[in-house]
Prior knowledge:
The chain is of the alpha/beta class. It is 31% helix and 25% strand.
Amino acid sequence: MTAATEGRPSPGTGPAAGPLASARGLTKRYGVRHALAGIDLDVGPGVTGLLGRNGAGKTTLLRCLATDLDPGGGRLTVLGESPETSAGRTRIRRGIGHLPQNPVLYPHFTAFSLVDYIAVLKELGGRRARHDEVRRVLDAVGLYDRRHSRVRRLSGGMRQRLALACALLGEPRLLLLDEPTIGLDPEQRIRFRDLVSEFTRDRGAVLSTHQIEDVGALCSRVLVLDAGRLVFDGSPDELTGHARGRVWSAARRPRDAATAWRGPDGRYRVLTPEAADPPADAGEAHPVEPTLEDGYLLFTAERG
Ligand SMILES: Nc1ncnc2c1ncn2[C@@H]1O[C@H](COP(=O)(O)OP(=O)(O)OP(=O)(O)O)[C@@H](O)[C@H]1O
């Protein structure tokens, strides 16, 4: 079933020139712990992938961009606006869509009423245009047919898609997505990729994820955070290239590999610290083409 699309609100407006978001020396501390330790960053159109270990600072960065958290220091602009003033924060919130990690959804609401409630909070147009917009985003995430279902009766993946529908309301210029594909089945993940890819033809998205395949499939640029610092900023191909000549299929697990794991064929995928010959204790070994995951694993392994 297709939702009505007429009368939908126009994309969030605001200063058009310049990056969609820009940070200089951005810091955020929780007590003595630096969650962000001086981030310099410009976010442009397209999908920017944000990778990093658990606790690296990805959610903190997204929450600062979403004006949900006050950074402790540095300069930040989002959609050309500073979040330091109340008026600036309001304009940013109207122009972005934020899918937080572990979104809280009211269980007794129906899917439609929940998205409509968020649309009211976002002050999206009159009732008719707002309802058209609610139907549009529910349709976009494949939940239009479940619009009358109570949130508590939806599966985990459906709830995640419902939260994504809320983030898409009002055609924001910048989408901030914190682990959006958690719990999605493979079909819905592809649908999600297509949706975000179409969406970012003329807008931007920052996608924090541990699903490296999503980064390879969607992102023109990838950032790696490590202990609150930006340690890599480049294309997925460049990150993959980091592992070139350092990935082996080996008969045995060598002692000094950066990373090694046993595959279903009983052989070991071995990532070596240096581009050199395979480790002598790996037994029979031959080089294999690196993946984005190899590049990321080697890059983070080098940082201890
Ligand atoms: N509310 C909080 N109070 C105290 N410390 C916090 C808080 N939120 C995050 N932290 C700390 O800040 C650091 C960065 O956390 P953050 O959630 O941004 O990491 P992340 O990269 O998103 O991790 P993950 O991949 O596990 O979601 C961690 O050391 C974390 O323990």
